[in-house]
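Example record used in the benchmark description.
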Amino acid sequence: MTPHERAPEKAPVPIVILISGRGSNMRAIADQAIAGKLPITIRAVISDKADAPGLAIASSLGIETRALSPKDFASREAYDEALADLVASFEPALIVLAGFMRILTGAFVDRFAGRIMNIHPSLLPKYRGLHTHRRALEARDCDHGASVHFVTQELDGGPVIIQACVAIRPEDSVETLSARVQRQEHIIYPQAIDWFARGRLELVAGQVHLDGKPLAAPVLIDARGD
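Model output (structure tokens):
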């Protein structure tokens, strides 16, 4: 290559996003991809609910959508096998869970090991599961936040990549705290996806590696002043 030649740009990394509701994180990711800020292409947005508002949003952005209802399958295992086949048909390098409210079977997780990310509205390992904002308020915590992690068979227990921490204010309600946390979700989830798409992030033997080095602790974004 001569000094005047530019290296060819890497093709955008294909991803599939799974949602169950309005898909606010999906929208944040899609907006950055469309603006050229994320080196990805969203091959499909898939939901377990045909009436999920996020499907209409994705469609309006020109993204292919699919709905696959668990009611059409005899078992959880049968549904996840069909879902995995549907996801695989789009040949994603990464699967992004963005408010997907089903617990994936081990067979699904194993099929895409190291290639599934999720975002959870707490500072994991605290408050796995549901109602995280209410639980943080009831515990009178000083801090709360969100975590992006690789998905493993342990519910909300996969290795954490990046977290954002917000302060809990005396006047906070579930709604105000949720809104502040969600603003940070829309920052840290695209960041983790960007690292993965650029080849900087990977899961090696159950440990997060960034830029070829194991992370001793998740990357932390301190948003307590926001």
